[in-house]
Structure to design on (125 residues):
């Protein structure tokens, strides 16, 4: 999105962005070391293209960004968003991680995978 000049215009936005090229791309992988902690990188698009979550199995911790919130999910109505893709990614990739996994979302309070499986109104198992 940040390297395509017409991306936002295709969705009706009339503003200019300064184009940039990323220094590196992070991709889904079963194991990646971040400062001595092992994280699995999960590709969970739908909020936006390339949306990622970072899961520490050892610590039962998911850094969920704008994918999954306590009682909610990330917006999917912005350019590049896709609700069906977001919901299926949460069901297939996140809900299978374990009931006690703590989710640290990009906004709002933390939650657990179990709490969201039971009560999230947007994504029912």
């Amino acid at each position: 999105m940040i390297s395509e000049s017409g991306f936002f215009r295709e969705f009706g936005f009339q503003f200019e962005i300064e184009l940039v090229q990323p220094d590196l791309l992070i991709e889904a992988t079963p194991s990646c070391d971040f400062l001595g902690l092992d994280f699995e990188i999960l590709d969970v698009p739908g909020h936006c293209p390339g949306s990622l979550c970072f899961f520490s199995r050892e610590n039962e911790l998911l850094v969920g960004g704008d994918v999954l919130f306590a009682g909610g999910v990330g917006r999917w109505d912005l350019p590049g968003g896709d609700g069906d893709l977001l919901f299926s990614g949460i069901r297939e990739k996140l809900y299978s991680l374990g009931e006690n996994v703590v989710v640290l979302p990009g906004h709002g309070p933390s939650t657990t995978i179990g709490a969201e499986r039971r009560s999230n109104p947007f994504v029912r198992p």
